[in-house]
Amino acid sequence: MLWSGWGDPAKAAALPAPIRGLLRDMLGVRAPETPAASFGEVRLPVAALSPLVLSELRGIVGADHVRADDDARIRHTRGKSTPDLMRMRAGDGSDAPDAVVLPGSHAEVLELLRACAAHRVAVVPFGGGTSVVGGLVAARQGFAGVVALDLARLNRLVSVDAESMVVEIEPGLRAPQAERLLAEHGLTLGHFPQSFEYATLGGFAAARSSGQASAGYGRFDDMVVGLTVATPRGTLDLGRAPKSAAGPDLRQVILGSEGAFGVITSLRLRVRRAPAERIYEGWRFASFAAGSAALRRLAQDGPLPTVLRLSDETETMIGLARPGEIGGPVADAGCLVIAGFEGSSEVAALRERAATVLAGLGGVPLGPGPGESWAHGRYSAPYLRDSLLAEGATVETLETAGFWSNLPRLYDAVRLSLHASLGSPLVMCHVSHVYGTGASLYFTVVTAQSADPLAQWEGAKRSVNEAIVAAGGTISHHHGVGRDHREAYAAEIGDLGVEILRGVKGRLDPEGILNPGVLIA
């Protein structure tokens, strides 16, 4: 993973001249006056951990698995939000951990947490490092140091229960590795978020991830049937049956907790048989409202495709629905729907039934071309962000969800807030996940950088968070809370809700060492 950007540096490409011209003429984007810092120019704080603490950590996991070198510290600094990348491109490594610790077992994680609690060392659980909500920046005040607890060594497929269609997997396994191991058994999770190439399964659970094929396979939290969690107070082993009426489901306390309550060390997950066939196709609707009505019909009455996405007029026009063709000519006006069908013998019949519904509601079939283009470029958008940042544009994403009846109000509220904060930005949106009761809205914002682009975006983010809460949406559908959404999350759940979460944290983490400052204040 590129330390100051996304993914494989070899996949990043400079923007073509026509796109640079469009950014200049349409948004006033100008190249930054100061070039991005090199790796060797990153400014790191002096490591705060004492030799005694480092020695104790090495005694737990082995000397080779405690790293305090600059390379390890830089690569475990923050996540991959636009503000995170802006700071790194400016050479600001002030949030770097003092050391990176790589445990190799649940027992070692337990011992590490007990040692860090005893020495008041903050612990940031680290998977793929793909958080885009400030979920990897610990509050330092009151702590003797900060360590990144990297789970990369916990990366096994432990067991496969083919009869129950349940597997046990360790949390540090990256999604592509997991899919390769499952494929050997003819299985899949069916979880393919945009972060798929780099994120870990433990991160999916900790942030309540939702993949691009959620219409067919469900969200990641739907897949979790059991968890083992290490806390400073001991072990939680949760989930022993498909469903239970034995009180509140404590798995839900851990899912979405972003490492603030404990460290997930094992996952029991529901899997599906790997599909024999995958078909993706495009449809055009005259408007976002018409396309939304069609998606709602499929979500409520069926048949529901495995993948179902709708881009608004702006996103369709710009071509962001097909990242590999960004800026290319768009022959058809309106809004693009991507429908994907995965399975075996049932795919043809499901596709035909869905086509009847879509056509009956005004959809125009575009054939497999747009769908195949989307599938080919489905993980490419973060690379485009890196290219835009290099040209002097601020580009960021944000997402929410709401009930169908409230979706137009939520859509308008976010767009109005962004225009009020940023002047005349380019704002694009798509529906990325659908349910019988509602859907998500995923926005991409592009604007020219001001003299202080960090302050520019942080002001816009505060305003749009407030607008989402006021319009009745959730502050996050699949990115999590982190630090960036913490105040808005508190407004969403109310004072009593915050007290409940503080009570849980106080019991599981009395010294407050686990990812302090994330999720709740």
Query: What topology, given as strand order, has the largest sheet?
Result: 15-12-14-13-17-18-16
SS class: alpha+beta
Unreliable spans: 326-330
Largest sheet composition = 7 strands, antiparallel
Rough outline? globular
The overall pLDDT, averaged over residues, is 95
Tell me the number of strands.
Answer: 18
CATH class of the domain at 157-273: Alpha Beta
CATH architecture assignment name of the domain at 157-273: 2-Layer Sandwich
* Share of helix, binned: 25-40%
CATH fold description of the domain at 157-273: Uridine Diphospho-n-acetylenolpyruvylglucosamine Reductase, domain 3
Approximately how much beta-strand content do the residues carry? 15-25%
Distance between the termini: 30 Å
Radius of gyration using CA atoms only:
23 Å
Number of separate helices: 18
Q: Could you explain how this protein is built, in words?
A:
The chain has 521 residues and is of the alpha+beta class. Among the domains are: 38-150, Uridine Diphospho-n-acetylenolpyruvylglucosamine Reductase, domain 2 (2-Layer Sandwich), CATH 3.30.43; 157-273, Uridine Diphospho-n-acetylenolpyruvylglucosamine Reductase, domain 3 (2-Layer Sandwich); 277-378, Alpha-Beta Plaits. The protein contains 18 helices and 18 strands. The protein has helices at 17-27, 51-61, 70-75, 82-89, 106-119, 175-183, 201-206, 214-217, 220-223, 251-254, 288-301, 313-318, 347-360, 368-376, 381-391, 407-422, 453-470, 486-508, and strands spanning 66-67, 99-101, 122-126, 146-150, 157-161, 166-169, 187-188, 224-231, 234-238, 263-270, 272-273, 277-285, 307-311, 335-343, 364-367, 393-403, 426-431, 438-448. Helix 16 runs antiparallel to helix 17 (453-470). The longest helix has 23 residues, at 486-508.
